[in-house]
Amino acid sequence: MGPARFALACALLAPAVSAQPTTPRTHRLDPTPTTVAWGHYDAAAKPALRIASGDTVVVRTLLTSSPERLEKAGVAPADVEPALRDIYKSVTDKGPGGHILTGPIFVEGAEPGDTLEVRIDKAELAIPYAYNGFGVGRGFLPDDFPYPKMRIIPLDARRMVARFAEGIEVPLHPFFGSIGVAPPPSMGRIDSAPPGLHGGNLDNKDLIAGSILYLPVYVPGALLEIGDGHAAQGNGEVDITAIETSLVGTFRLRVRKDLRLSWPRAETPTHWIAMGMDRDLWAAAKMAVRQAVELLVSQQGMSKDDAYMLASVACDVEVTQLVDGNVGVHVRIPKSIFTSSRSARGAP
C-alpha cells in the first residue's frame, strides 16, 4: 500500500477507533499542601486532579482541627496524622471558612448546565479516633455555652461504634459532611461553611455509602471538593460538630447531560431526597418542600397538586443542620410507595 492510500485508510479508521469507549480508571487523591482547598469553594481554583466521566476516585479527607488542639484534648502526638501537620505548617491560602477539603477534582466533559452524579461507594474510617467540640459564640445555643470544649472520642472500627463516654456507645454511619462543586464564577470564592446551590457543607447523615448526590455544574470540570468526615451525626448537628474524623471515600463520578437541576438532590437505596438551605429555617423548609414537589412532578409525572398532597401524606420533612450559617432542611421521599410502573421512571 502506497503512502497516500495508507494515510486515507488511517483517516477512515480514526473515527471508529476514537468512538471506542474508554475503560473507566481508578484514581487516588490524598490530602497534601497542594491538593487541598482550605475553607472555600472557588470557580478559579486550580484542579488537584483531572479525571474522565465514569472514573472512580479514592479520596482521603482530614478532620478539621489543628494538631495543637487535638494534642491538648488528649490525642498522643504520634497519633496526629502527618498530613494534617504538613498542611497546617505549609498552607497559607486559607479561608474564609475552616474546612480542609480534598480537591478540586476536574471532571472532563462537565459544563455549566450539566449535573455531576456523585456515587458514594464507600466511606471508611481512616483513624481510630474522632472529636466533638463547641466554641464561643458558635452552635445552636451559644448563650448557654459561652466557653469552648472538645472531647476526643475513640472509634471501634470492628464493632462500628463510638465510645462517647462510660456506658454510652454511638453507632457509626460514616459520611462526608461536605461534598460540593465550584459555585458560579460571579460568586467568587465562597465560605466552606454555609451549604448552598453548589452543595458543599450539607451535613446530611443520609449520604452514607450506597447513596448518590446530584450537583448542578456551574463551571467547566465542576471542580468537586470533598471533606468534613463524620463518623456519625444527629440531625441538627446542634453544637456545630458531629463525630469529626478522617475518612477514606470511594466515589464514582459521572457527567449527566440528560439531567438539569437548579439545586442539589440526592438518592439512597430507599429514598429520594430534596433539599432546601437558607439563613431562615422557615424559608429553608419551604424551599425543600418545593424541591420535593418539583422532583415528584418531573420524575414521577405527577400533577403539582398531587405532588403537594403526596409530600404531606407520605414524605418526611426533617431538619438537616441548624448551625452552618445557612440552615438545612431535607425531604425524604420513600421509594417504596411507588408501584413498579411508576418507580421504573428512574431518578432523580
Describe the structure.
It is a single chain. By secondary structure, the chain is of the alpha+beta class. The protein has two domains: 23-130 and 173-269, Jelly Rolls (Sandwich), CATH 2.60.120; 270-348, Acetamidase/Formamidase-like domains (Endonuclease I-creI, Roll). Helices cover 19% and strands 33% of the residues. It is built from six helices and 21 strands. The protein has helices spanning 3-18, 67-73, 82-90, 281-300, 304-314, 340-343, and strands at residues 26-29, 36-38, 40-41, 49-51, 56-60, 100-107, 115-125, 129-134, 149-156, 161-165, 168-171, 175-180, 190-191, 199-200, 212-216, 224-230, 247-256, 265-267, 271-278, 316-321, 327-334. The strands form four sheets. It has a nine-stranded mixed beta sheet. Strands 2, 4, 6, 12, 14 and 16 form a six-stranded mixed beta sheet that branches. A hairpin with a 3-residue loop joins strand 18 (265-267) and strand 19. The longest helix is centred in the C-terminal third of the chain and has 20 residues, at 281-300. The radius of gyration is 22 Å and the shape is globular. The protein starts with a helix and ends in a 5-residue tail after the last helix. The model is unreliable at 6-19 (pLDDT under 50).
Short characterization:
This protein has two domains: 205 residues, Jelly Rolls; 79 residues, Roll (Endonuclease I-creI), CATH 3.10.28.20.
Q: Please give the radius of gyration in angstroms.
A: 22 Å
Look at the helices and sheets and give the structural class.
alpha+beta
CATH superfamily of the largest domain: Acetamidase/Formamidase-like domains
The H/E string reads: HEEEEEHHEEEEEEEEEEEEEEHHEEH
Tally of discrete structural domains: 2
How much beta, percentage-wise?
25-35%
Q: Strand order of the main beta sheet, please? A: 1-5-17-7-15-18-19-21-20
Percent range for helical residues?
10-25%
The number of E-state strands comes to 21
CATH topology name of the largest domain: Jelly Rolls
| CATH architecture heading of the largest domain | Sandwich
Q: What's the CATH C level of the largest domain?
A: Mainly Beta
